[in-house]
Amino acid sequence: xxxxxxxxxxxxxxxxxxxxxxxxxxxxxxxxxxxxxxxxxxxxxxxxxxxxxxxxxxxxxxxxxxxxxxxxxxxxxxxxxxxxxxxxxxxxxxxxxxxxxxxxxxxxxxxxxxxxxxxxxxxxxxxxxxxxxxxxxxxxxxxxxxxxxxxxxxxxxxxxxxxxxxxxxxxxxxxxxxxxxxxxxxxxxxxxxxxxxxxxxxxxxxxxxxxxxxxxxxxxxxxxxxxxxxxxxxxxxxxxxxxxxxxxxxxxxxxxxxxxxxxxxxxxxxxxxxxxxxxxxxxxxxxxxxxxxxxxxxxxxxxxxxxxxxxxxxxxxxxxxxxxxxxxxxxxxxxxxxxxxxxxxxxxxxxxxxxxxxxxxxxxxxxxxxxxxxxxxxxxxxxxxxxxxxxxxxxxxxxxxxxxxxxxxxxxxxxx
Amino acid sequence: xxxxxxxxxxxxxxxxxxxxxxxxxxxxxxxxxxxxxxxxxxxxxxxxxxxxxxxxxxxxxxxxxxxxxxxxxxxxxxxxxxxxxxxxxxxxxxxxxxxxxxxxxxxxxxxxxxxxxxxxxxxxxxxxxxxxxxxxxxxxxxxxxxxxxxxxxxxxxxxxxxxxxxxxxxxxxxxxxxxxxxxxxxxxxxxxxxxxxxxxxxxxxxxxxxxxxxxxxxxxxxxxxxxxxxxxxxxxxxxxxxxxxxxxxxxxxxxxxxxxxxxxxxxxxxxxxxxxxxxxxxxxxxxxxxxxxxxxxxxxxxxxxxxxxxxxxxxxxxxxxxxxxxxxxxxxxxxxxxxxxxxxxxxxxxxxxxxxxxxxxxxxxxxxxxxxxxxxxxxxxxxxxxxxxxxxxxxxxxxxxxxxxxxxxxxxxxxx
Lengths: 416, 416
What we know:
S-adenosylhomocysteine deaminase activity (chains A, B); 5'-deoxyadenosine deaminase (chains A, B)
């Protein structure tokens, strides 16, 4: 496949008239005049388009897309106990299937090519994701009250460890739902199979304060005392951190999945990204679930992250566009061990965006990253994962049927 | 014209299968089976679409769309003095023309049918806006250093006071750039011609503190002491308000144009919308200029406003979707004296949005306003102002030429 005469971003600047050759699941060359050697004869016209390597959604619960708009504007505990948990108690694999497919549609439309998820019925989530063609790091959620889920963690890894799109991981929910034994088991499993660990960490003030009161240390200090923290860990949220917590996270190489919109909407707080960044921590961006966002769009997440941090610190010069763009791309590629980027040899996970839209005008060589972070609205028109075209010219085959089935599934869930 | 079988929002709920009949510049009927009596035979299929009455952008400087992405991530004073003011000093009417047209394209694409603007060369802005077909409340910016602008304020009102789309107003810039004499002149003029007043008010902490230090009162108290404040006034920003300021604004009926994204990006602060709302003040939403946003999209503004206020007060139940939706619609209709809404007799300013998109799924009768505020991304496909179709099925006639001309104009401005 050849993408012909597209623009790309290189070193923060716009580079025009680049060909991108794709051979099977990988990029075989990028540059002016590069030829396609795959022999499949497929050409995508890139003139007037920007090619970007895929965005990575570092924390979500994709099946919860089925709960979008079901309950908003509520205090956290009534929201969970009166609305979310009762629905979750009724979930079936079929709900997961259509919730995941619905979520994939939105991510394909906003240039997300890989997502990191922790939830229920993850074999079904994996199958649905593969049918949609996206890449995902998936873990079944683990907590003490569900020994059956803990028992299935290792078989789940074995079932998916050699897949081309699905990367299995281990997902202990949080320190307040998992005992030391569960956490240790999760860690052992991750080390044994060399897979990642996905955990919620220090999301709300009350959670951190009550943990400290009972245990005499912060959740981060506690996990560190178990030898749990390393660059194998993706820690979602990290909103309430002491200076000591920040140092530990940076020193251990923990990957932070920052979820700005969810943290704002649930009023959890504003994460100390400035201290994390200064300490050298790796920060990625996640949407969280659509029940607390209510979008799955990293363009929104980039803009909100940048402007919220500027405002929180009264410093408009902090968190410049380029730094936030890296969070959604390169930082996540490193965190999730993805061989990605617009270069020969990388996996062919990328999108094309139409530059002939008002929000990209005026265009200069040095404002493309600003436009991506502050004014692009995520309207991607072509998305490719592993060399397979998932959306072309704004059309995703089968989208209408998925929307109808997801709607029916939601109606069915409510009536159950 | 007849819009057939569209859905609408009524009392916060989704109402399906509604016809909307438009006769000339006004809506002649809304309801199931309503017929078109205009005789023009024009039909727009509304099935699967949501019709919304137009959003109103309560504060912007539209020509500054030409500066989008030109300078970001800078401290306020260097941003103004090194970047924005030098460009503004070189502006010509031709720059205004193409900046305004570019801004209109983005607003048409996001369902904004009317905007409130204060800037330079406003006759040119008015002509460009009329060519694009949008409605606007326009005022030339007034400040002491430019007596020529002050002299032209009344002639500008006379030139435009009988226009069908342009509503002239008076635009004293702010209390720190306008003397008492200038402010009084602006007030007299507004009262004489019964037009609105558009002013920046208490945007930054340093501006309010230095005013208080020199004058012994807040900018709000000062304006009130001049008899300046009434429901004729649209006050942009209102970020740094004392409890006394909040009472004055509410008691005088001043219309607040809240600009959440701009206030965040420039790190100005978070406006006390909770206190303003409790005091009964009328709050509208503005994008500010694209040089400090960098979008002209009220869907983004609604989401950011809601989630930022929730987070600032640690109260996820505050600023529910319906309240924020009213800020972008009904509050602004009252503020700007616009006879708008989806009902017989109202001016025909409305948009159609495609409901068959992932971000509107699942759809229930009672989650449509949540979807509009929290998950819709502003991708409107048809926009109508005063009964004239400005965009149909995503196509705005002449868009590509405007994008090219705006780009050339920006290049020319930089080279000047």
